[in-house]
Amino acid sequence: MMADDAFLPAGKRELTKVQNRLAILDAAREVFGELGYETATVRDIIRRTGLAAGTFYNYFRSKEEVFAALSDDGARRFAPILKALRSKGNFDTFVREALVAYFEFMADEHTSWAARRPAGEPVILVKGETPEMAAVFAEVKDAIEDAIQRGHGPIADSEYLAAACIGVAREVGDKMLMRRPIDTAGAADFAVSLILNGLRGLPGVRS
To answer: Which of 128, 126, 193, 199 is nearest to 162 (CA)?
Structure first.
């Protein structure tokens, strides 16, 4: 089936491509939220967009690719928030403010299917690392290294520490979204305590 934008002028075609991709992602958020990721199908997403099936497959090959794109979209928008926190106070302050910002970002994503998916549905993980996810990791790692260089952070392996912080945030955040009411403050307090107290217990680490 021919894609809807196949015969448009070049400038209009590029704009239409952007609009179509956003329409597919918006439809996927709604469908995943209403039906759950496991139950939803590509056909459900296509119906919600009003686009031709050929147009959908011009952008994505499967619902797994759509889900990965939704995850990338969140990472892309959160990276600048992390960057703005980089120069604020010492390492402990950065950890707390970054985790609070992350949990609030997740909770405020009212259009995200993750916050509305059916109770008990397994957490879906994106396989591999996308450029957007790598950018978030780089922001956390750079913030840790900046704090160490200024004498405000722990002397520890920055890559391991960034991975640990992100891992704790993701796992606690997923559980937070499954609870009602969503308690961002409780999630942040738990994650901050776990990271900072656990870090101080590592052999050879100096704060």
So the answer is: 199
